[in-house]
Amino acid sequence: MPADRPGIEECKSLGKQRMQELRELQTHHSDDFFSRLEALSWISIKEVIDHPFTKPETFHLVLLELFELLQEVVINQRGPAFLGYFRHIELNFSLRVQASYDPEQRVVRLNLGSLLFVNELGATYQWLYSLLTEQNFPITSDDITRLVVPAPVINEFTALYHAGEDGLPVSGQHGLNHPIGLTILRFVLAHEFGHLIYFAESQTVRTFWENNAESDFQDVIEHLVQSHQLSVRGTMPDEEIMARWTKEFVADGVAFYTLLKWPAIGHIECRLAYPLLQMAIEVFFLTLATVYHGDVGTDTHPPPTIRSYTIRAGQRKLCHLGWGEFFAQDWNIGWFVSELLVKIVKTIKNKEESHEPYRGND
Ligand SMILES: [Zn+2]
């Protein structure tokens, strides 16, 4: 039986009450943090793995990010009603890359293991970050071709590529501390809350967001066809799949625009906040494309690079720029990172193929 959808006033007052509970929890950094967290009636924590795979401070940090994001959404973006909308949040400590929501029961499940995988790309982050801070932007395709990828970065992506269907290789042995990793973590959390925000919104707002997302997606398809990156229009999904993809585009958009307004992580210089977000989003989507051995869509999710492209389309429209100028100016760092990562994955694929055993007739 679906839970009754509460009225807006009820959601608002419940949201305010929960906000207060979170604030109190945050102000006491005591050892009983977890037991006090679990004492909240609307949050539960479940351990679904049987070996210690992470540092407690990492888990703590993920939770704080989660709470801060909730506060940002509640105070600056959508109001307390959102926080009162869902009945329950389940935080699962698992190695799976997954988060889910149940709009009928108003329950959101976050697998925290999925948030930790982003931390396994230490060498990649170091390298990309050094380019961010040392390189003069904007950068051209020629510059990208000239860049030499360090071996540890190739190794990390090869490991991701091999992980494939077994899931991402999460060891959880590292502390979650790199700005790019933290930004990806925020994006993943904000995306999942994006789904919840969507379901808590009025029909008018939902339709407005859906129309925007679909128009951005159309913009991407037009561009990819015109630039010969897509040859046929027949790759368009049917109506039912498109409706599910649209929900993903909406959640991505909510995440992106929420984070855009959020202060930068830690000691990051202000001027780097926006490029860092773009960089992190590209790393996240290209990582997914690598793990699934290609840029493929499913019945529920669009292909990863189409997702990042659709975020770009929204930004491009806001900037009133053609695609060429947009890549050369506003989105330069994001475009540069995705080009680089595609180049790395191609290198890995070619290497794998050249090692394939001979399949002759003899
Ligand atoms: Zn989603």
Any overview of this molecule?
The protein is mostly helical and 362 residues long. It folds into two domains: 110 residues, no CATH class; 211 residues, no CATH class. The chain has 15 helices and four strands. A four-stranded mixed β-sheet has the order 1-2-4-3. Helix 1 runs antiparallel to helix 3. The chain is globular and about 55 Å long. The C terminus is likely disordered. Zinc ion (ZN) binds next to helix 9 and helix 11.
Quaternary structure classification: single chain
Backbone shape: globular
Instruction: Supply the helix-strand structural class.
Output: mainly alpha
Percent in helix: 55-70%
Brief write-up:
The chain has 362 residues and is mainly alpha-helical.
Write the layout of secondary structure elements.
Elements: H1 8-27, H2 33-38, E1 43-47, H3 56-77, H4 81-85, E2 88-93, E3 99-102, E4 107-111, H5 112-116, H6 122-134, H7 141-146, H8 151-163, H9 179-200, H10 203-226, H11 239-260, H12 270-291, H13 304-319, H14 323-328, H15 332-354
Parallel strand pairs: 1-2, 2-4
Antiparallel strand pairs: 3-4
Zinc ion binds at residues 191, 195, 248, 251.
Comma- or semicolon-separated keywords:
362 residues; mainly alpha; four-stranded mixed β-sheet; 4 strands; disordered C terminus; binds zinc ion
